[in-house]
Amino acid sequence: MMHNSDSLAAEFERLRSRPGTGSAPPVLALFVVDVPGDAAGYEQRLRSVLSPAVRLGGTADFERESLPVDGVPDWFAAVSSGNEERAPHFARTGYDGYVGHTGGSRPWELQSWLFRFDPEEDSRGWEWWDATRAGPSRVHIWTDSQGESLFGCQDLLWAAYAAGAVRVDGPAIQKSAVWSAERGAER
After folding, report:
1. Are the beta carbons of 162 and 91 closer than 8 angstroms?
2. Are 35 and 166 in contact (CB under 8 A)?
3. pLDDT tens, residue by residue, 168-177
4. What pTM value is reported for the model?
5. Is the distance from CB of 68 to CB of 60 less than 8 angstroms?
6. I need a labelling partner for 107 at 20 to 30 A (CA). Which of 8, 88, 90, 124 fits?
7. Considering only CA atoms, which of 172, 181, 179 is closest in space to residue 145?
8. What are residue 90's DSSP bridge partners?
């Protein structure tokens, strides 16, 4: 999936405020996330990690050796930089969950993760669409993968786990009407 300044601006706006139900593509990719505790707090942490990364995609000079980390939450920077002991419990648990989910892969280093948001980088096969609460400890993450069921999403999985997920299933392609119904039920 190629990203451009317009698609990144739209993605950033969806992170800041939820999209209208009439604006969705025909299908979305769904990730089912179980969290230990408050789904609303989890969703806020996840958005707080993805927002500065998507914003960087539209503003940063990716020719530089490192990207600015302004706006990246301290807890995410700690867990992504080999300082797990300085990260809060939810992020350390997520670190372990990601390692288990990926079969022992080392979690993402912060700069490597941020570079995935380079608009010229085509390995990020998704754009943020929304998150809905599917229960007191379950969140549904919705992404636009342009209808693809297999796409590069390890960067999203890392953010989902680091924000405190205990389990992530997906992606599974769903008609956008499923998202619209969930979003409408939350009101």
Report:
1. yes
2. yes
3. 999 999 999 9
4. 0.95
5. yes
6. 8
7. 172
8. none
For residue 165, CA distances in Å to 24, 63, 70, 95, 172 come to 25, 33, 24, 9, 18
Helix, strand, or coil (residue 174): strand
Query: Which residue in this structure is represented by tokens 């680091």?
Result: 162
- Residue with tokens 């979305």, as numbered in its chain: 28
- In the chain, the number of structural domains is 1
Please report, as a single letter, which amino acid is at residue 138. R
- Spatial separation of the C-alpha atoms in residues 69 and 120, rounded to whole Å: 19
Reference 75, options 63, 61, 90, 97; nearest CA is 90
109-128 pLDDT tens trace: 999 999 999 998 888 999 99
3-state secondary structure 100-163: HHCCCCCCCCHHHHHHCCCCCCCCCCCEEEEEEEEECCEEEEEEECCCCCCCCCHHHHHHHHHC
